[in-house]
Every structure is written in structure tokens, then in C-alpha cells.
Amino acid sequence: MTSCSAYSLDMVRTQIQLTEAQARRLRAYAKQHDISLAEVIRRCVEKGLADEAADRATLYERAAGLVGRFPDRRGAKDLASHHDRYLDDAFG
User: Fold this and answer.
1) Number of other CB atoms surrounding residue 22 within 10 Å
2) Are 10 and 2 in contact (CB under 8 A)?
3) pLDDT of amino acid 2
4) pTM over 0.90
5) CA–CA distance, 20 with 9 (Å, rounded to integer)
6) CA–CA separation, 89 and 72 (whole Å)
7) E-state strands within the chain
8) CB distance 18 to 26 below 8 Å
9) Taking the domains of the chain in order of start, what are their residue ranges?
10) Sign of the CA dihedral with 63 first, then 65, 66, and 68 last
11) How far is 62 from 56, CA to CA, in rounded Å?
């Protein structure tokens, strides 16, 4: 592992493959913002991971809002406590 003066954390060296267009856009962004290509990629990775976490939280929130809103077509009232039995009956 190597250390970078801009970071107090250890860095891990890795290799990735990019399309020519991706590499060109990343280099242009790095030059425009006067940062290294590695820093651009680190920032993109962090943003992507943060976006994924936010999207997942939004999905969970939407799903939680639907819980209990629709009655069972067959009139089951004990689905939460007997869901395995209902799945077994449905998929046998």
C-alpha cells in the first residue's frame, strides 16, 4: 500500500479497463479541474456508491409504504405469521 499526501488513508493500487471515450472524458475532466486522473476516478467511485445507497434507501422507503395497503385476494389475515405455509401452498 502507498500513501498519498492528499489523504491520510492508505491507498490500494488496482487496474481497470476503460473505453477510449471514458478515458478521454476522465482525462479532460482531470485537466479542467487540475486534479489527477486517479482522483477523478476515486470521486466517481464515491459518488456512484453514495448514489446506490441513496437509491436503495428510497426503494426500501417506497416498499415500506406499501406494506399492509392491499388485502389478500383470498382473504388471508395471518400472512405475516404463516407466510411459509402460504408460499408452500402456492409453489408446492
Assistant:
1) 13
2) yes
3) 46
4) no
5) 30
6) 15
7) 2-3, 10-11
8) yes
9) 19-67
10) positive
11) 10
Contact 23, 31 (CB under 8 A): no
Question: Which residues are within 8 A (CB) of 76 and not within 5 positions of it... i.e. 6 or more apart?
Answer: 82, 86
Please count the residues of the chain.
92
Q: Taking Cα atoms as reference points, which of 55, 25, 19 lies closest to residue 40?
A: 25
What type of residue is 47? Answer: K
Q: What is the pLDDT of residues 3-55, one digit of tens each?
A: 445 555 788 999 999 999 999 999 999 999 999 999 999 999 999 888 887 78
CA quadruple 76, 82, 83, 89: dihedral sign: negative
Handedness of CA 5, 6, 7, 8 (dihedral sign): positive
Q: Are 28 and 40 spatial neighbours (Cβ–Cβ below 8 Å)?
A: no
